Amino acid sequence: MASVGVAAMSVSSMMTASNAEAQTLNMAQEWDKVFPKSENVDHRKVTFSNRYGITLAADLYVPKNRNSGAMPAIVVGGPFGAVKEQSSGLYAQTMAERGFITLAFDPSYTGESGGEPRNIASPDINTEDFSAAVDYIGLRPEVDRERIGVIGICGWGGMALNAVASDKRVKAVVASTMYDMTRVMSKGYNDSVTLEQRTQALEKMSRQRWTDVQKGTPAYQAAYNAEVAKDAPQFMVDYHDYYSTPRGYHKRAVNSGNAWSQTTPISFMNMPILTYIAEISPRPVLFIHGEKAHSLYFAQTAHAAAAEPKELMVIPGASHTDLYDKTDVIPFDKLSSFFEQHLSA
After folding, report:
1. Which of 85, 188, 209, 262 could lock 192 by a disulfide, CB 3.0 to 4.6 Å apart?
2. Residue 84: pLDDT band by 50, 70, 90 thresholds?
3. Strand, coil or helix: what is 187?
4. Helix-strand-coil percent breakdown of the chain, rounded to 5?
5. What does the pLDDT average to over 74-81?
6. pLDDT given for residue 10 in this prediction
7. Start-to-end C-alpha separation, the chain
8. Above 90 in pLDDT, residue 90?
9. In angstroms, rounded to a whole number, what is the distance separating the alpha carbons of residues 66 and 236?
10. Could you tell me if 175 and 299 are in contact, meaning their C-beta atoms sit under 8 angstroms apart?
């Protein structure tokens, strides 16, 4: 029975969206990214389904100057609360300019992807989103399915590591300016939340579930990054500067004046996603983080827990959000050499 179940799961995970499903997503066809379109890359919008039956929207980037053989590919996701028109798309397009077929996707329940209600996150479903993206790109005829890598940005850095720990098809993974979302939601920044505070938060969210069910719709948190207090920590100022200004604002992003549901943290608070990070080995993992990032300790802890081969690259003077979009700060040469080495034929 176990083998039958595994086989069924494998088949269902490779299902792609039908035309009818794709049409229900109502994806924008104009270029609405926060970064300019490259003349060296072919771009198209695509859809695929994860094994929970949620249809995901994605951008496929293919180098115009390419050979006729099957090529290495990279799946890109993040940051947490962002959309593919922001950082993940920039990473994907840039890596396509450097010779990789890339796919940037909107996670379930966000952006142009399917799933109801909206703006819900899940450590399990969002980890699955990465593997579903690998399903999709590995079945494309121009892709060598034995040469697939993953890049996770911010909170999706942790999700990427969790996905690659179990998804043995992925040959190399990069976590850029990563967060461990299960750690920060359950313990707060720098693990400052007490057991009493954690219990109070879970008590409040548990009771909120009754209210949501009675109303038939979830309650949402306050608008993200819409305003920033004068005494706010620098990283909150940085988030606002990216998500709520022309630099990175996008109307579909949770972080651009929208919000997660009030009960979203519940599952994150009870599921540490990096438990099996050492099982990424013997496949390589590269952590990239800013020296001045408030989140650097996430990468340091994850790097210490990972097994060889591993590397932590700290960018001097860089903040957390510098690695979202500053092309003179993001070490794309390092990313290229890393994947060229580990996704070689």
Report:
1. 188
2. very high
3. helix
4. 40, 15, 45
5. 98
6. 36
7. 37
8. yes
9. 41
10. yes
Residue type (1 letter), 143:
V
Contact 92, 107 (CB under 8 A): no
Assigned token pair, 255: 């972080």
Q: Are strands 101-105 and 172-176 parallel, antiparallel or unpaired?
A: unpaired
pTM of the model: 0.92
Q: Cα–Cα distance between 241 and 235 in angstroms, integer?
A: 10
Give Rg (Cα) of the chain. 19
Distance of alpha carbon 80 from alpha carbon 104, whole angstroms: 13
Single-letter residue type at 191: D
Confidence at 170, pLDDT banded by 50, 70, 90: very high
Q: What distance in Å separates the CA atoms of residue 146 and residue 144, rounded to the nearest whole number? A: 5
Residues paired with 102 in a beta bridge? 61, 74
Pairing of strands 101-105, 55-63: antiparallel
H-state helical runs in the chain:
2-13, 19-24, 87-97, 123-138, 155-166, 181-187, 195-215, 234-243, 265-268, 296-305, 322-325, 332-342
Burial class (CB in 10 A: 0-12, 13-18, 19+), 108: buried
